[in-house]
Amino acid sequence: MKDLYDRSRLRSNRRNFLAVAGGLGSYLTAFSALSSPLFSQARDYGPPAWIPLEKLERRLQELGRRYPDLMNLRTLGKSVEGRSLWVATLTDSSVGDETKEHVLLTTLHSGIERIGPSSLLYLMRWLLSGHPMAREMLRKQRIVCLPIVNPDGYVSGSFHNKNDLDPYSSWTLEGPMEPEKNPEAMAVKRIMDELQPEVHGDMHGSILDFHGSIHADTSAAYSNVSLRPYHHEIMRLMNEAALEEGYPADWLEEDSERIFWGPELDPIRDKVWKGRPRAYAAIYCYNRYHSIVTANENAWERSALLRYRRLLQIGNEVWPGEYFPGYPTRVIMGNDLHRLTAYGVTAAQRRKSRVELWNKTRQITFGFDWPETEGMILCFCATSLTAVQKWLGDATLSDMAQRIKSHPGFRSKEILRLAKLHPGEDGKRPAAFLTEGGGAKYYGMDQGPDSLDAGEVSPIEHGLCIRLRIPYHKAELLDLRLNGHPVGRSESDGYVSWVARGFFNVQVNVSPERTKKDDFFLVTCEYDPRERRTQGTATWEGK
Ligand SMILES: [Zn+2]
Fold this sequence. Notes:
Layout: H1 7-21, H2 25-31, H3 37-40, H4 53-66, E1 71-78, E2 84-90, E3 101-106, H5 115-127, H6 132-140, E4 141-146, H7 151-156, E5 171-172, E6 175-176, H8 183-195, E7 199-205, H9 232-243, H10 253-256, H11 281-289, E8 292-298, H12 301-314, E9 331-333, E10 339-341, H13 347-358, E11 365-370, E12 376-382, H14 385-392, H15 397-404, H16 412-421, E13 433-436, E14 464-470, E15 476-482, E16 485-486, E17 494-500, E18 503-510, H17 512-517, E19 520-528, H18 537-541
Parallel strand pairs: 3-4, 3-7, 7-8
Antiparallel strand pairs: 1-2, 2-4, 5-6, 9-10, 10-14, 11-12, 11-13, 12-19, 14-18, 15-16, 15-19, 17-18
Helix pairs in contact: 4-5, 5-12, 8-11, 9-12, 15-16
The structure holds zinc ion.
């Protein structure tokens, strides 16, 4: 490694520099730093710094033997060249799985980016250390680690396996490319499908071909702009945890001061962030399971530990904006104030519901009255095309209210009363209509799920929640109804409310028993904002 830096060239560069700066006597003191041993002689970078694979495997096996109640180690078959594909599950086996959050940690490159396996092992050792915080994580989470996804690449120093496939990036949204040549990626897919994780974290970074090989530390992928936690706040928390011990972070597009690329911006591709949206392994996991995905680059094991420890802490906390503790992965639809969210009192119930709703978004129509008005909300969720055609009509509030009269399960009087209170119903203003909060369907009811085949639609088996976000945190609920019937407080079949981030949240939990037999749900809410904010003319007239 010594030949990487030519001592004589370093010296002559320094001489030229001094000659130029020589006249500026006052600056000379600053150059004294250059006389330190680091710059005056070539460094000894030493032998390769990566741990031989056999040693890494031995460490894994030792951990498994030492902590049989906390760690289960098994293999998921063999790599192209016949090396073992290890998977370690870390969790407190005395606590049932029903209440546990699921986390998948991989080192998917794990070929040349050898700090990945080393960092994950370092984190695993901390998780098993008996530290009170670690013990709590293992009680509340099931943390599945694939520390050496590409063992052949690890040994040969390549991103790819022997079939020239990179187990990290050779994916489509459906899974690994060329499955029979891609056993490493197929093992990852198997674990993703089994675990349906709330979080997928992937460790990258230094190649460790020599001591002091460094890489920018950060908590997201450079090449793939979609590979970031959808809560950017998570990235910030991870980076800040590392900074507390002095490890810096590169903030990617923010530090580069660039906006994201998109097809319409292609003519200015040289001016936008270089990362592109790509279907890597992590995006498969997001697409199937609505997982929070993150990748990180690291130069040092300690820096990775600090970042991932912070990430894992989130799984034990109540996320700002959420009601139940655990990772914030529950919002399925809704681009505006209100949300369709996953149902469930336990982590396992919420996971089932999340995965079901996430994969049925095409058959679901979710929306609310618009323009929204202070003091009242009408928010609906139709889970079949039939329900859309039957109850939403021409997508105006008044048409829905009229149609609802013939719904056998509804108390329509209450809905009609509230609908009539909407300012758009006085005949002087534009009529109120129903708008969808579901991504591409946002702009109109006619773009609803009418392209679905009947066979693609099935009842919702695992419940759903309609979450209203009232933008007045001191608000008081006056009347809350589901399908016109009063709703009581209940985490499993009723409502919960909480204040977070300036919102008064009201979540109506619609049980699986209800969603299995019904396909249209309407929440009506009247509230007192208990706050007067000025607006428009009132702001300017000082009223
Ligand atoms: Zn990488």
